[in-house]
Amino acid sequence: MKKSKSLSRAIKQQLIAGVGSFVVTAVIALVVWYQWIDRSYQDELQALFEKTVKEQARQVQSYLTKIDRTLADYSKDEALAKAIRDGDEQQLQQYQKATQSTLKNEFVSLRFFEVDRAQKIIEDESLTNLEKHMINRAEKDQTVKPEVIGKPPYQLMLARSIQGSDDIVDGTALLILNLDVLKQSLSSNASQGAYQITQNIDRVQTVFLSGGVAGNYEAIKQSIDRSHWSLTFTPSDSLAGEVVQGEFFYIALLVIFVVVVTGVAVFAMRWFNGKEVDAFEATKALLEAGKKELEEGIDGIEVPKTDDDLPERPKLPSEESLLIVDKAEIAPKESPAKDVWSDKTHMPDVIFRSYDIRGVVGEELTEELAELIGKAIASEALDQGDQALVVARDGREHSQVLCERLIKGILSTGCDVLDIGLVPTPLMNFAALTSDRTSSGVMVTASHNPKQYNGFKFLIKGKTLSDDRIQAIKQTIEAGNFHLGMGNHEDLSIVDEYVERIFSDVALAGHLHVVVDAANGATSRVAPQLFEELGCDVTPLFCEIDGSFPNHPPNPSDPNNLVALIDKVKEVEADLGIALDGDGDRLVVVTPEGNIIWPDRLMMLFAKDVVSRNPGCDVIFDVKSTRELSKVISSYGGRPIMWKTGHSHMKSKMQETEALLGGEFSGHIFFKERWYGFDDGMYSAARLMEILTIRDQDIDSAFESFGAPPSTPEIIISVDEDKKHDIVKTMIEQGDFGDGKQNLLDGLRIDYSNGWGLVRASNTSAALTLRFEADDAESLQAIMTVFKRELSKLHPDLSISF
């Protein structure tokens, strides 16, 4: 009976061994599959996709290079340069015919323009604004990237300077081609997947779709060098099938592995149980004999019958002493502390914004964090090759202590500090961009935010940090990945140099009386000094630095904050009033009649002035700006480009396009012509004064010629920080805006035939920003009603004040 039970138990063990080994080996097989075979397959698949898109990108690049080389061959042609100088039309026609013969069916036209033509083409209606822009850039021997023009089917335009052999520009060549050859080339690869070429200048524009069939795979985007183009490729299933073939071999191999291991386990258990059954009787007999010997004693040794017969146990150390010994033996060795920020509650994601770090001091932004930010940004500067940072601060009550901790962090990395003290943000930019020791800097400021806020703006190697590079600071802090060293701290004065630089650039042809409202911010001392140096009578208003901002918040975008300035301008009969924000990089102007000249209208006058000297140049403005601005820029021969709101976004776009002027509705205005391309409210005001005095116009009459359709200022709706982007997303996906056209460049802008409306998430505060404009007051109210209806419908909990 016992043997039968043992055999039954053996069978159960074999079954358990078989099932168990099957499960274990199956799990191992799955792990191997997903961690090795499938990953290898996915890597191979991705490599194939990337190789394919790169090959096609090279094909597009090769096409553009061939076109560019055609004009490059002409750029040093002395005979062509002479024909342009002499106006020899017959000779120029020979070049046109030769080019047409080379490019065959691609050729549309080739035109040549004599030098200085850019100064003569403002009123030339035979040329488009883009042609004027390209001719002007080529004439200055600047890089001219090819661009598509017209409507589908698009054509390609490219310009190049003609210099002859003496490297002096004698003229320009303007070539226009169709895209048939490129389309045919990409269409021949349609079986590989779907191809799309897009051009991104002022908007994303689809140049070409291949018509290929896309599979269920993620699209891959590849930039095309030396162009505004990108190639997006979505692989087809047939292309992926080239990699799938080896999959079945690995599946079969894993199945065989599972079966073999399971079989071995069952066989081993059977063998073991067989031995166990054979030994059963012998083991039983041995146990019986052992029991008998124990009862009788072994070799005369008496076996204790009870516990009382056992010898006394030796005395052991006490439990307490054992614990002491154990603690001493297992105490961990001290390891060097790592400077890693682990207190997540004091480094909230919300302070790492789109183009700066900004938060409520004491709650979101602490002194300890300021020191770590200093370490992180200094490490970034050192990695980029700058050995020093310009450091400045505004006049907020906590800016000095935050700046001190920031500097401590910077110095601990071995990076030097050039401390220029309490100055406006434009002076930090000026100091960094004119220094022979660095092109990087940090500004301690919260700009126009209320007094409880503070933060940091960053400039590294001449570029303002934004988006991913701001997030990289947070990641560096979390990782504790800082340089170590001992930097030097040096105090510098920059105000006089800044004022002298503007004085040498801006010339006023008359006398102006101005009221300057510094909002008790960082421009309180510098702005009156600058305008007095320029020859103005200055009436200061709130020009005492006070970080509590006792008179009004330092935000000139809010009309309520301009009331005192308007009253003072009327009281003293000044020529204009200048409102600056807390750190001096924003400007709003008021007139003697009490009118507010919002920055997008200021941009009209600035664009007219800059474009008149630089026909065809790019002028950039943000999505909150009036559409009248685009008309003005085009009418004077410039090229209007709408872009995202945000000073860092605007500066990046200006560097990309080499634009000479940019501006935002909020008051950030960027001059690259005669200046450095950063936003500066004081310099912008000086340029405005120059225009008014040269033209001998008062400010009200200067703007009479520009359209002023009914519009609203910025409308702010407070929302939770973590909800603002979701609200805009819902409006985009579910909002009903009738026949309006969506513009998703930055938030949601709806353009109608008679006006437009905008809702976007603020980059600097927990709020939605809205603005509206229309041809007349009735249309303006109708558009506002539509937006209010959709906001109320989709987000009934919002407090909507318009």
Short characterization:
The chain has 23 helices and 29 strands. With 802 residues, the chain is α+β, with helices and mostly antiparallel strands.
List the helices and strands and how they pair.
Elements (H helix, E strand, L loop, with lengths): L1 H74 L2 H9 L2 H15 L3 E8 L14 H11 L7 E3 L5 E8 L8 E8 L1 H8 L5 E8 L3 E6 L10 E4 L5 E7 L1 H8 L2 H32 L1 H17 L22 H12 L26 E4 L6 H17 L4 E6 L5 H13 L4 E7 L2 H10 L6 E4 L8 E8 L2 E2 L3 H12 L9 E3 L3 H11 L7 E5 L8 H8 L3 E5 L21 H10 L3 E5 L6 E4 L5 E2 L1 H15 L4 E5 L4 H9 L3 E5 L3 H11 L3 E3 L5 E3 L9 H15 L3 H4 L12 E4 L5 H11 L6 E3 L4 E5 L2 E7 L5 E8 L2 H18 L8
Parallel strand pairs: 10-11, 10-12, 11-15, 16-17, 16-18, 21-22, 21-23
Antiparallel strand pairs: 1-4, 2-3, 3-4, 5-6, 5-8, 7-8, 9-13, 12-13, 13-14, 18-19, 19-20, 23-24, 25-29, 26-27, 27-28, 28-29
Average pLDDT, rounded to a whole number, is 83
Between the first and last Cα atoms, what is the distance in angstroms?
A: 93 Å
Beta-strand content: 15-25%
> What is the share of helical residues?
40-55%
Q: What is the overall number of helices?
A: 23
Q: What structural class do the secondary elements suggest?
A: alpha+beta
Strand count: 29
Question: Major beta sheet, specifics?
Answer: 7 strands, mixed
| Unreliable parts | 303-307, 313-339
Q: Which outline best applies?
A: globular
Radius of gyration (CA) equals 38 Å
